[in-house]
Amino acid sequence: MTLSWEGEDEDARAARRAAAQKAALQAGRTGEPLRLGNEFAEVRVSRVETRNGSRLLVESTRSGQWVALCPLELEALTWQNTATFAAMIGSPFGPLLPEEET
Question: Rounded to an integer, what is the distance from CA 20 to the centroid of its chain?
């Protein structure tokens, strides 16, 4: 008997799309990745070239989570205060604001 769950096919498709997106980003990597870490986290940061310009690919080496940020998104980090980052850390592996229902 094979166990499955509601939405399993959708989850599998989303995982394949994310893997393809990450592979495409990694193919555009320029230079050597930079690793930053401490006792709480470790990330690998790379500059990648896309058809829409340069992005910063930030990958968690422990969880496998990743995000590619454009220069405006990176600048937006500088607009935040410590409370924003504390809220993000206080709710790991999820968005700070929930996505709107479609």
Answer: 14
Residue 8 lies in a domain: no
Residue 95 included in any domain: no
Q: What is the pTM of this model?
A: 0.81
Q: Count Cβ atoms within 10 A of the Cβ of residue 56 and give its class: 0-12 exposed, 13-18 middle, 19 or more buried.
A: middle
State whether residue 45 is helix, strand or coil: strand
Q: What is the pLDDT of residues 72-98, one digit of tens each?
A: 999 999 999 999 999 999 988 888 888
In angstroms, the Cα distances linking 26 to 48, 53, 60, 65 are 7, 14, 14, 14
- The residue range of the domain holding 47 is 28-90
